[in-house]
Amino acid sequence: MEVSQKLICMAKVQNFSEISPDLPFTEFDFYELYRQTFATSELGKIRKRLPLREMAENFGLISKSMRAKKGRKTYFTPESKVALMFLKMYTGLSSPKLMEHLNGNVHYQLFCDVRIDPMHPLTNYKLLDDVFSELARGLKIQQQQEILARAWKPYMKDLDTMYTDATCYESEMRYPTDAKLLWEGIEKSYEIMCTLSAKLNVHRPRTKYVDVEKANLSYRKRRRHTKVQTRKLTRRLLNLLGKILKETRTLERENAGAEKLLTARQKSDVEIITRMYRQQKAHFENNNPRGSVKDRIVSISKEYVRPIVRGKEVKSVEFGAKCNNIQVDGLSFIEKLSFNAFNEGTRLTHCLKMHRKLFGVDVKKVGGDASYAGSANREYCKDRGIQTSFVKRGRPSLEKKENDIIRNELARIRATRMEGSFGTQKEHYGLKRICGPSDDVAGHPHPAADGQEGVRPRGYSFRGGGDDASVRRYELSLGNRVCVFLLQSKWIVLSL
Q1: How far apart are the C-alpha atoms of 380 and 367, rounded to whole Å?
Q2: For a surface tag, which of 80, 83, 327, 384 has the fewest beta carbons within 10 Å of its beta carbon?
Q3: Is the pLDDT of residue 363 over 60?
Q4: Mean pLDDT, residues 318-322 taken together
Q5: Which sequence spans correspond to the domains of the chain?
């Protein structure tokens, strides 16, 4: 019986070169067959459960007061743009690769509700970049999460059980040291000073740039560095950076209209480097290597990034965005996202309020690690009759109680499902390394024209010049990504 089934399957396989050009069905029937198979496929089930219309309205793509735009009609509808965002995260492809697959995959076209003529395929992948940039500008994370929660609530189970945990989505940057940071500031400020001198047609101020460059190179070539060597180099770097910044301010003060010669990005760099220089100088003069610096700048190109100490054995300090998540029935939602460090243990009450807002039910069971097991959180949960996974204080009882069984089960599920979702987000949805902030959560403007890097999907690279005239494209923001990873951990549409 098994042999006959294998023969039947093999008989269905044909080479394209052997197929007759006279197909036995019309073009309409051809696409109808794909529609039937798409409805039962994974992508078809996902699209069926996505509230694309509501999401497009929240993105600002649809409005009753919107006037018809002049010029060429857009290729993608508002719903198609949102579907394209999900498709990109689902496939994990870059824009050029995604466009290539979109031209040849009918199921992808049905998912985005577009029909591409095989004789006239799409060739400019910047069309996709423009769509992602438009979505990034109109993103509102919390509102999008509420829309998705309303759409998926009828298909979810155990709504009264919530798990919570925090993680750090690291930024794409090298590990910062005082010497590296100071030399980066010197290189940028020296280039700005030379550019300004050339535009003003004045003699470039004399500095010890070449000598310090040789000393820095010699220092970096050594395998090991003593404290004396490090402190000596740091002093020279600080003196040189202070000299360059002083000469730049002198050029601006002595020449009228000199500030207009600098681009917005150059002005921003000078301001950031000045702040970094003051922090490093104060820290150096304090002579306390372990001393903390408030709002410490660890990267000039990403001045919003702050060091986050989480006490991990492998990595004691992380640099990126700290995110506190809640998880219900395998689906994760963002409670707080910030590039500044915060104590997730104080966010439990906020998590419970957010859960109530999303699903309209009170939480009866909560799973969280030891950072949430403070006295205030214990009392809050006890007063409201909420069962937790927190380790019971005091001497352990010999008899096994029902509450202990529930507590252990909550702790087990949190340690597996919750921690596993973080791995899925980072390994499969491109959140392992991020490259920029989200305006909705970090309070920073989107980097449209100044060349500041936005969040870049895997395989992406920035193109264009460095001045204000060349508009740097910024791709999906962090917020777009975390909105999309609601699909991770458990495909709700596949459990129907």
Answers
A1: 14
A2: 384
A3: yes
A4: 86
A5: 25-63+73-137, 157-173+305-495, 178-286
